């Protein structure tokens, strides 16, 4: 009997930015909206369900302009049930940018978001190098 195996490839074609800040998620969104002229809105929480465990929920916000890319997501790394990306316990939030953004706009976003007084650190990360990278797929 021949055995067939299917290989699942996940798409990590997005930009990941880690934010360290003691601000609550809604306050961080307010400041990001203000300095970047964005309009993040709260959407359904990001749910992670692992076999044999109860689901974990992480707050999630979205900003996009209809018919124009990219999509910007702000996701909390912490919940009462644990971390979204456990190996990055120092990170409080992640900005995920899906679809195309040019280098100039990305640099502007990072530099401007760093100017928020309560943001201690803001770093671009390579999602493919994370141990728990599959938790960022939605």
From TrEMBL:
Protein name (database record): IPExxxVDY family protein
Organism: Pseudopedobacter beijingensis
């Amino acid at each position: 009997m021949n055995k067939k195996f299917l290989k699942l490839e996940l798409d990590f074609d997005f930009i990941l930015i880690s934010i360290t800040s003691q601000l609550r998620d809604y306050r961080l969104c307010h400041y990001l909206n203000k300095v970047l002229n964005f309009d993040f809105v709260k959407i359904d929480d990001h749910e992670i369900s692992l076999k044999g465990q109860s689901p974990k929920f992480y707050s999630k916000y979205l900003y996009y302009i209809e018919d124009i890319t990219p999509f910007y997501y702000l996701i909390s790394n912490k919940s009462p049930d644990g971390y979204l990306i456990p190996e990055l316990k120092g990170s409080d939030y992640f900005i995920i940018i899906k679809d195309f953004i040019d280098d100039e706009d990305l640099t502007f976003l990072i530099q401007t978001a760093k100017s928020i007084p309560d943001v201690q650190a803001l770093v671009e990360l390579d999602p493919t190098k994370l141990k728990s990278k599959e938790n960022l797929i939605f």
